[in-house]
């Protein structure tokens, strides 16, 4: 497989609209967008950690 064929294979899995949208932003806007996304990641991690620390309810016994 040639280098160009590898590039073409990867291109089919890339959402170019996202690339174009991000490139239309200024570096400052891209940085702010990144930090908002990272804040969401950290918030989700904290929520998952809290959820793991809560005791789970006793199993329901079917009779």
Tell me what the structure shows.
- This protein is an all-alpha fold.
- The chain has one domain (3-53).
- The chain has 3 helices and no strands.
- It has helices at residues 3-11, 16-23, 27-53.
- The chain is flat and about 60 Å long.
- The model has no long low-confidence stretch (mean pLDDT 90).
Summarize the structure.
By secondary structure, the chain is mainly α. The chain has three helices and no strands.
How would a textbook summarize the main sheet?
none
Task: Give me the number of helical elements.
Answer: 3
SSE sequence, one letter per element = HHH
Strand content: under 5%
Distance separating the two termini: 61 Å
Structural class: mainly alpha
Helical fraction equals 55-70%
Task: For this entry, give a set of tags.
63 residues; mainly alpha
SSE blueprint:
Elements: H1 3-11, H2 16-23, H3 27-53
